[in-house]
């Protein structure tokens, strides 16, 4: 089994110039946490994710992990945060891509154990492994933990079906009448 056999390949993609508000509408409608950003040649530019956006709503000191433990000074009403949200929502997604050092990459031919290891090594479990092809780094898919779970479930169901079908078959050399008795 390879990355290609388990990856999501029907991806909703963003352009670097797409606005954050438009990306959020797509994410909400499709219930997707991360959207790849590609150029006009389908070359991977970056990943826009919901976690990155939620971090943007925090004060700069909290984003920089400077040990800011008390956030009681922040507004806790959505209406009070509307200015910050308004400002961010009109900017291009390219301003808010996940740092590439936080992302994991593989080729379509990467084996399943290595894909699992990449998912495990990711600093953020919500981030998928990005599947790129060729020297131009063309985006061909993404593998998330959910893709792995889905593939495992499908395989388990296929094995259960095969064993259930096999349980009804007579043993070699056993006739249907002998099995019934």
UniProtKB/TrEMBL annotation:
InterPro entries listed in its UniProt record: CBS_dom, CBS_dom_sf, Diverse_CBS-Domain
PROSITE patterns assigned: CBS
Domain spans labelled CBS: 7-64
Isomerase among keywords: no
CDD domains, A to Z: CBS_pair_SF
Protein name: CBS domain-containing protein
SUPFAM superfamilies membership: CBS-domain pair
Keywords recorded for this protein, A-Z: CBS domain
